[in-house]
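check this one:
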Amino acid sequence: MKELVLESKGIRTNEYFIPPFELREGELVILYLYGGAHFQNVKTDLLNIFTGKIKNENVTIRKPLTYVDYFKESRFRSLFFPVRVGEYLRKKANTESEFVEKIYEMPWVNKNTKVSELFWNSKMLLSLYATFSKTKYIVFELAGLGPVAAKENYDIVRDEIRKGGAAILIDWASDMKDNCDKFITLEWLSV
């Protein structure tokens, strides 16, 4: 049996319940939260638990998970001092990792490209590769991506964790239900 990364005996609040599950080495677990106004708040709660920012008595983290935090830049910074790909990678990535070079495989990306000028999918890939350069244990989402780009990002994560690592996808769509190791659905206790 593969090494245990995270064990949840169930996460219960006054509003919802996440059933028990285990995340093991090489697995990709999807937490399906449904779409709606609640999504961001529930996602934030779960991210804080899975990344260890908030302790939950029912969740045991054996290997810390890292959230793939997507690029954000203020309008002022974007206009006057835009972050470029090379600068972003120096600050956010392990520059010795093979993942740093993967972003440059896209023909329209070089170290002087302004991150704010990248397509949304390219920005998400930049953040994903930067995170993978430091750890193989991640929590991620596919928000803002169309079906093709979401599948591309999902497949990249799936392929990488099979080589070692583990991932939790927090999602509002059930598209990948048949292409994951475990599919966990949020249960509402009150509406």
